[in-house]
Specification:
The complex is a heterodimer of chains A (296) and B (277). Chain A is mostly helical and 296 residues long. Helix content of chain A is 73%, strand content 1%. Chain A contains 12 helices and 2 strands. In chain A, strands 1-2 form a two-stranded antiparallel ribbon. In chain A, α7 packs across α9 and α9 packs antiparallel against α12. In chain B, 78% of the residues lie in helices and 0% in strands. Chain B is mostly helical. Chain B contains 14 helices and no strands. The two termini of chain B are 45 Å apart. Chains A and B meet through α1, α3, α4, α5 and α6 of A and α1, α2, α4, α5 and α6 of B.
Amino acid sequence: MARYWPQYLAISPYYLIFSVFMLFPVIYTVYLSFQKWDGIGDMQFVGFQQFRYLWDDPVFWLSVRNTLVIWVLSTVPMLFLALVLAVLVNSTRRFTALYRVALFIPSITSLVAIAIFFGAIFSNNFGLINAILKGLHLGAVPWMSNEWTIKLVIAALMTWQWTGYNAIIYLAGLQAIPSELYEAARMDGAGPVRIFFSITIPLLRPIILFTVVISTVTGLQSFTEPQVLFGSDAATNPNSGGPGQAGLTTLLYFYHQAFDNNDFGYAAAIVWAFFLLILLIVLINWRLVQRKERRP
Amino acid sequence: MNALNRKRVRGLSVHLILMLGVLISVFPFYWIIVMATNTSQDIYRFPPKLWVGSNLLTNLQHLFDKMDFFGSLLNTVIVAVCTTLLVLFFDSLAAFAFAKYDFPAKKFLFGLLLSMYILPTQLAIIPQYEIMVQLGWLGTLKALVVPAAANAFGIFWMRQYTSTGVPDELLDAARIEGAGFFRLYWHVVLPCVRPALAFLGIYTFITAWNDYILPLVMLVNPDRLTLQVALAQLYAGHSTDYSMVMSGVLLAVIPLVLVFTFFARGFIADATKGALQ
């Protein structure tokens, strides 16, 4: 054992920091979810009471519904548009460097900056979007106060930020497909649509699976978007997710319970329940995409 | 001739659609510049001003009156630089051990690292907050840098590169001359893995620069904010003076975009490689 000390020393910083600031906290969060605790006083063991309360908490279910709606509204157009863009970039040889850089830039941009930007252009009274609508003699839309448009704005933000990233990933996958396959298919008389569904999609499947999993995990964790967009009614009810709590995602609800209400035990129950829900959805997605693979 | 024309039209429409995509991608940056350089009145007016104005300095003056911009900027730079340096050092060192050596429990430890990669940070954040309270780190930049220094992706990424990018012959030759683990790391491995470090460095820097939830939770003392938190609070507090807020967003976003554009080619290639692994 002694002769391995340099190797153990080399990997120890990671495992030390990881154990103290990640592993222990994650396990402790499980413990916390069975306690009642305000962060200062004594903890009180309450068993499954937090989870029972969670089950009957309409706000928790509202937040889950919001999160799922926003996730679907963003992920479906995002992955579809990404595939279209990737196929188009792949079909041409000019300006490809420009396309890659321009499409990738949104994904490295700070979410806070972009949330502020979306808040500004979708503002009910002063926003660019409503100014254009008025200019076209269409009515202004109360984007930031209607239950559905709030979700649309958040979903549009996520779509804007991640479509190009996914397109670049798809593009890398497309370029790995050997061109002989396409030539052979063309020789057999297959049209572009047939080629797309019989060659491109099946060969791209592992990468599509990757993007579906990543978009599910990140999409369901939306927090910064509604937190920044609707932070302004903070005085009375901070982090409530905007009018009608339409932008209250589950992580925002978790944050609200933990750091506004100091209800740490309940917040721990929320975040664990939610993590299990994410796992379940990822597994379902995984099975769906895998099953299609077996069919043809 | 006809077929050639049709091909040309198809090629042109492909570029038209792609250019539309490019336009949508970069429009926010253009509009941030427009808002930051005009007065708020000019933007609220109908039709709004669509071109760069001359009011940037006044907007910045208002911004600097409302928030300690350079204090926040300095905090952000310190956090991003320290996090990046620690991640580069720790991860390349650990990756060398994982890539080129066998030691007991190596498989288990690496598997643990990979499986923990999927745990979202929010699961840990309440106890993390309590730990920082106990350590007396709450409100300090240490509370942001130290947890971020453990980066599983970085070790995974560096290990991939080290196993193929560092020739075993080179290591053996240095060993014959009596070099131990750490001398090998410093004199042989580090020079070889520089391209992989470049990507990991830029990636870590961008991520640390843009991080929001951790500074939001940990920086409870209002005069030690990072840029992202400071801007979000400014937006929440003065939501109608968009020009002022946007001048701050401009200063926080454009440098990063410019640096990225400069390194973009290699960065994008590496980022997709990371995703396809």
